[in-house]
Specification:
Nucleotidyltransferase, domain 5, alpha/beta, about 40% helix
Length: about 500
């Protein structure tokens, strides 16, 4: 039997799963680790934690699935995008990795835009504007603020590619993950030498760029021993978590869009050809499908907004629910469902971590607006769900304005597990929302890429067709849709009314 592993190095933990040649999941395991915030709006992790979690999760999957080491033919990697791992000449990590949700690089984004000759020129070079989440601003931040550490740099890797280095000894990345560094020529699917020169960055800092299903190396004898596998096991390019999640959801053809509500929220749509938003409101990246692209909009605090509400406002309810072995989210969802659509004039702006799409504003802040004495906890919960979904619709509307036809929306992530939140999505989007048989997301997509790389399938489209099926459909309620259509312009105007005050709150005016 041939077995393929998908390893997803996430922000909250590393997940490994094993599938057979038909896509059946044999076993999975999650190992968590901490995230550090040494200053407000900073976010860091220790790459050693990722590696230890990888070793533990792989070994647990092999044991749990009763998998023979020789049966594991290939590993696919996925992981949180944009993070920066700085390595010295000995291959040692110089400092903690700076993550995708870190907001310290506002000045560096301005520096990059100026070096490129302005925002429009930057978008022409790398198909995207400079935002704080991307990798290039983090590199410049290190150069500007920790020059001694910068002088030590010999290689810079993304999170999943640091794990690849530990597995194979190779310095490499894939086109989808590299797209989020702001250093890739998205059209040519390789490093932008012009951009590197403008930023005075050494090309040797960066590894070779592969397509996502290409073989990047074999396990070293040391890694194979640690994992309980063999050196015959190959490691393929893999993909950033958004592209890998899209593979795991079958977003490999025209007209299909995925909406994912996890910690962050992602609207992801496939494109046969490269399409760039001239305003830079959504991202244009290389897809994990060979020679194809995708557009993506991101809400930084999607499910994270509801998690914040649970932790900050509902501590007693959370504790009581745990004692009764009841999911507190089910309780909150029940309360929200009892309140009217539109939350009786209550709006929530989900900008708890700043925002990316469509505003690219690190100073944006979360808000409840419209509170009255008549509002209950259920109204608050529903407004959080609605506000997150309004934010996702911002991306959907941009895609459609760029001429991309959306024929099917596939809901994934924690938000897709809630029938109530799926209904809100269908009503806000005004389209049918479907779910699929796989709920494993990036790890499953990475495993499918591994299977393609090992020759189990001809290409990733064939792999997805063989393994992914639609299981549920949620149709929009047209009366509720009308309520949300009226609320959407108000939601958008609230940001415009508050954006200058957000900057004042952030201390920049």
């Amino acid at each position: 039997m041939s077995v393929f592993l998908g390893i997803d190095i996430g922000t909250s933990g590393t997940k490994t799963l094993a599938i057979d040649g038909k896509g059946k999941i044999l076993a999975d395991n999650l190992q968590d680790y901490p995230c550090y915030a040494p200053k407000p709006l900073w976010s860091e992790q220790d790459p050693e934690d990722w590696w230890q979690a990888t070793v533990k999760s792989v070994r647990n999957v092999i044991k749990k699935g009763k998998i023979k080491p020789n049966d594991v033919k290939a590993i696919g990697l996925s992981g949180q995008m944009h993070g920066s791992v700085f390595l010295d000449k000995n291959g040692s990590v110089i400092r903690k990795a700076i993550l995708w949700n870190d907001q310290r690089t506002v000045k560096e984004c301005d520096e990059i835009t100026k070096a490129a000759g302005g925002r429009d020129e930057l978008i022409k070079l790398v198909s995207n504007p400079a935002i704080t989440g991307f990798t290039a601003p983090k590199i410049l931040w290190l150069r500007n603020n920790e020059p001694r550490n910068y002088e030590k740099i010999r290689k810079i890797l993304l999170p999943k590619d640091e794990i690849r280095r530990r597995l194979t000894g190779e310095y490499a990345t894939d086109v989808s993950d590299a797209s989020g560094m702001l250093l890739l020529n998205i059209a040519k699917r390789n490093w932008s030498i012009e951009m590197l020169n403008k930023l005075k960055l050494d090309r040797e800092f960066f590894g070779k760029v592969y397509e996502s299903e290409d073989v990047t190396g074999n396990l070293t004898s040391e890694a194979a021993k640690l994992l309980g596998l063999t050196t015959d096991c190959i490691v393929v390019g893999g993909a950033g978590d958004c592209a890998a999640g899209a593979i795991g959801n079958g977003i490999v053809g025209e007209g299909i869009l995925s909406t994912s509500i996890g910690t962050s929220g992602v609207m992801f749509v496939y494109s046969d050809n490269i399409k760039t938003d001239p305003s830079g409101r959504v991202h244009t990246f290389c897809h994990a499908v060979r020679g194809k692209w995708h557009l993506m909009g991101v809400t930084l605090a999607a499910g994270g907004s509801l998690q914040w509400f649970r932790n900050a406002v509902c501590q007693e309810l959370f504790a009581a629910s745990r004692k009764k072995k009841i999911d507190v989210y089910n309780v909150l969802s029940y309360e929200a469902e009892k309140t009217p659509a539109g939350s009786e004039g209550l709006f929530f702006l989900p900008y708890l971590s700043g925002e990316r799409t469509p505003h690219a504003d690190p100073f944006a802040r979360g808000c409840f607006i419209g509170l009255t004495l008549a509002h209950s906890r259920g109204h608050l919960v529903r407004s959080v769900m609605e506000g997150v979904t309004f934010s996702l619709r911002d991306s959907l509307d941009i895609f459609e304005n760029l001429g991309i036809s959306i024929k099917q929306i596939r809901a994934t992530g924690g938000g897709a597990k809630s029938p109530f939140w799926r209904q809100i999505q269908a009503d806000v989007f005004g389209q049918k929302v479907v779910t699929i048989n796989s709920e494993e997301g990036p790890a499953f997509g990475a495993a499918l890429l591994a299977a393609v790389g090992a020759g189990e399938y001809k290409n990733i489209q064939e792999a997805c067709k063989a393994t992914i099926k639609i299981v549920k459909e949620t149709k929009p309620d047209m009366k509720t849709k009308k309520i949300y259509d009226k609320a959407m312009p108000i939601y958008r105007d609230l940001y415009n009314s508050l954006k200058d005050n957000f900057k004042k709150i952030g201390g920049t005016k």
